[in-house]
Please model this.
Amino acid sequence: MGVLAREMELSESGFVPDYFHRSSPEHLEMLGVDPTRLPSARDWLEGIRQGYSLPIERRPFLLVIWLADDQPIGFSSCDKIVFGQRANMHLHVVEPTRRQQGVGTVCVRQSVGIYFDRLKLKQLYCEPNAFNIGPNRTLQKAGFKYLKTHMTVPGPLNYRQPVTRWVIDRDAARA
Model:
């Protein structure tokens, strides 16, 4: 499968807010995203620019773009970073025709390697909406271990929802 995950360049970062702002209310609901909590594209990009200006040890996030034939098909982001310790990742196959084909699993594995390398992590977590089957299956196939399902507000774009918490540690990521 000819896909590549790599760290997203600042010039490519408009891909992230564009994805959310172009998504239908139904798709956002499946993701557990509250459309009223989406910042404007301009504010979002300014936040990304500010984050990119910081040294990696102090960044509040890290963005990874997923490419097929040099075209973006998805992305991953990492937040709640405690450098050298742990972080939380998010995953999105943006191109609907690429979903349910194994692309996410390949890209998640590559993204995990980037996060462990760049952020010197010991553990990486992911908490997708418990009812969103795609990312939960992807994480399992990519080597993440199930921890629990619980109710929470997973991030600033989300509403309270059931999420499934997954984890992968450095040793499992190397395997």
Summary: The radius of gyration is 15 Å. The beta strands are 3-7, 62-68, 71-82, 86-93, 123-126, 145-152, 161-169.
